[in-house]
């Protein structure tokens, strides 16, 4: 009588059970505030701080599926959740991080580049509306500096160095690799988040956007990147010693 082999269902090599569990954790983490917005009215959640790490754990496709589940749950739990946030805070960063860790930057180079273009043009020059008022140039154009750095970082260190650092055993390089991973993945989508917010939700005056984007955003995001590194390094090192079957595309 032969042995009966059973195989579990997977998404991109990641077990469905892992994907579902991580999705539930991301959804729950969306109601845990870590850093409140400088301007008030909301917060950066634990889920957002670890979204790039999910790609390191589950690979690009498993992470994208888990982020979709987590983002959908957050829309019912987190008070400030929006439909565009499902993409810009969950699905997009998880997919971006997965592609970077697998050195498939050519799939995603356009995300930060076009994001910069939209940030600079929409809705300031098209389609414009009276609430915007006079544009404080060149301050508005220059205010994209922090989010905009996601593009040069992607096409330089994001082509391979970030993945190598995260995959390596040097804890310092892993830490900075995870910081850069979060920077590129999250800020690339944040560029698009500004545009959708201004177009569909609240027409913030241009000078306010410039101050927030150029001054407040870097302050908030550096702390998120540090948290990502602090959580990610011991987690990945522990999984490497666990003896568990590594998921294709994951880096532990």
Q: How many distinct helices?
A: 10
CATH class: Mainly Alpha
Radius of gyration: 19 Å
Helix amount, in percent?
A: 55-70%
SS class: mainly alpha
Distance between the termini: 38 Å
- Number of domain units: 1
Layout: helices, strands, pairs:
Layout: E1 10-11, E2 14-15, H1 16-29, E3 33-36, E4 43-45, H2 46-77, H3 83-101, H4 110-121, H5 139-142, H6 145-148, H7 150-155, H8 161-167, H9 171-200, H10 206-240
Antiparallel strand pairs: 1-2, 3-4
In short:
The chain is mainly alpha-helical and 252 residues long. It is 65% helix and 4% strand.
What would your notes on this structure say?
This protein has 252 residues and is mainly α. The chain has one domain: Arp2/3 complex 21 kDa subunit ARPC3 (Orthogonal Bundle), CATH 1.10.1760. Helices cover 65% and strands 4% of the residues. The protein has ten helices and four strands. It has a two-stranded antiparallel ribbon with strand order 1-2. Strands 3-4 form a two-stranded antiparallel ribbon. α3 runs antiparallel to α9, α4 runs parallel beside α9 and α8 packs across α9.
